[in-house]
């Protein structure tokens, strides 16, 4: 079901994806599997599996600056964010703000529907700024094999 973390850090609601949730979810997961195989073939990342959840940010919700993995402490290697907001207007806010490893500003990414963002999980701190409209995305992580701090029971 919907889950919320520490409201001082994040205010989004999440729901984990599972192929049994219907054709659109199964199709998305199949596309991410193709991407995993291509990334391994071309970038030698050794990605083993993928986990993802829907994220809903209500008006004013945010996610403070964080990393999706810390070196040596998680098996998340590559982060994906796919936006589901058709007709998103820049004035609505809700951007993904990305920093480099030294926490210097790199770029803002508007959450336009159909946009897919990929970045190395350990190396790019990021945050989600508040929006004036509801904002929807699928956040996911390609993982390497081995013990890590990620979910122990990824959806199959």
Stretches where pLDDT falls below 50 for ≥5 residues?
148-156
Tally of contiguous helical segments:
1
Strand order of the largest sheet: 1-2-9-4-7
Which oligomeric state applies? single chain
**What kind of sheet is the major sheet?**
5 strands, antiparallel
Q: Quote the beta fraction.
A: 25-35%
* Rounded mean pLDDT score: 90
Rg for CA atoms = 15 Å
Name the shape in a single word: globular
Series of H and E elements: EHEEEEEEEE
Protein structure class:
mainly beta
What gap, in angstroms, lies between the N and C termini?
A: 17 Å
Percent range for helical residues? Answer: 10-25%
Query: In total, how many beta strands?
Result: 9
What features would you describe in this structure?
By secondary structure, the chain is mainly beta. The model is unreliable at 148-156 (pLDDT under 50). It has one helix spanning 23-43, and strands at residues 13-16, 47-57, 63-66, 76-83, 96-99, 105-109, 116-120, 126-128, 135-144. It has 1 helix and 9 strands; from the N terminus they run βαββββββββ. The strands form 2 sheets. The protein has a 5-stranded antiparallel β-sheet with strand order 1-2-9-4-7, covered by helices on one side. Strands 3-8-5-6 form a 4-stranded antiparallel β-sheet, with no helix packed on it.
Write the layout of secondary structure elements.
Layout: E1 13-16, H1 23-43, E2 47-57, E3 63-66, E4 76-83, E5 96-99, E6 105-109, E7 116-120, E8 126-128, E9 135-144
Antiparallel strand pairs: 1-2, 2-9, 3-8, 4-7, 4-9, 5-6, 5-8
